[in-house]
């Protein structure tokens, strides 16, 4: 029982930092213009030195154009046949972090200097679903309602071939040293596997997390959806190995289906 509780505390701490970095780019984007970067076609190489693409500077922040009457809560993962074998709890805690600085750092690395987007018209964090047999196998989602122009720009950012390396660089900076819980982190790999059906992009982070009892291996999948006026991030965490593809695709299919209703 103590080991399960300790493991859950570790994964919650790590997921908070991963989510912070993911949020730094999930809702990134400019109000106008186009990012001159082709879609990603290969896995990002960990540790590579990315070269930022040359694009026009982002114009000053503008007020978000009113979206249609969409509710972010309609687009997060909810209890359904796809979540069989998982227990639902309250929404995941929003991590406290310098997310604005991270957003700007990653956007500039990808090739979007001067990035400063407006707030969404609505946002929410869905429930956390924990596997009943393996407590470190968890999934939760976030959704935001944004102008269509920002959705398009954000999709181009996460599809950039530089995105994986830029994401890793920002994450390593955030995870350096020992955190307030006495945990240390080692990023083993950050990859951009082939995009799953129904999604915009996938970033897979493999990490070793060390506490006073030892080192534990985790895999964090951050899955992005950009459709219409809705941005969704699905975070799937598993211990020791990649999340089971069939189960993960079930989560994806549920959200992709909801995104058709706008």
UniProtKB/TrEMBL annotation:
Protein's UniProt name: DUF5642 domain-containing protein
């Amino acid at each position: 029982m103590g080991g399960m509780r300790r493991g859950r505390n570790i994964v919650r701490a790590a997921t908070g930092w991963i989510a912070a970095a993911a949020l730094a780019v999930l809702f990134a984007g400019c109000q106008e213009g186009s990012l001159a970067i082709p879609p990603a076609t290969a896995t990002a190489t960990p540790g590579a030195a990315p070269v930022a693409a040359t694009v026009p500077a982002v114009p000053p922040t503008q007020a978000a154009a009113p979206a249609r009457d969409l509710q972010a809560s309609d687009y997060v993962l909810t209890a359904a046949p796809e979540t069989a074998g998982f227990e639902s709890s309250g929404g995941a805690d929003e991590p406290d972090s310098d997310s604005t600085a991270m957003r700007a750092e990653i956007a500039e690395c990808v090739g979007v200097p001067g990035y400063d987007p407006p707030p969404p018209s609505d946002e929410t964090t869905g429930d956390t679903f924990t596997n009943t047999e393996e407590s470190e196998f968890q999934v939760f989602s976030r959704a935001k309602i944004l102008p269509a122009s920002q959705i398009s720009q954000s999709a181009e950012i996460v599809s950039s071939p530089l995105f994986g390396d830029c994401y890793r660089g920002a994450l390593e900076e955030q995870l350096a040293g020992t955190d307030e819980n006495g945990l240390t982190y080692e990023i083993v790999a950050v990859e951009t596997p082939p995009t799953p059906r129904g999604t915009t992009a996938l970033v897979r982070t493999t990490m070793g997390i060390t506490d006073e009892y030892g080192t534990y291996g985790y895999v964090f999948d951050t899955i992005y959806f950009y459709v219409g006026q809705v941005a969704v991030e699905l975070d799937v965490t598993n211990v020791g190995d990649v999340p089971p593809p069939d189960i993960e695709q079930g989560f994806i299919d549920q959200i992709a289906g909801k995104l058709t209703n706008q």
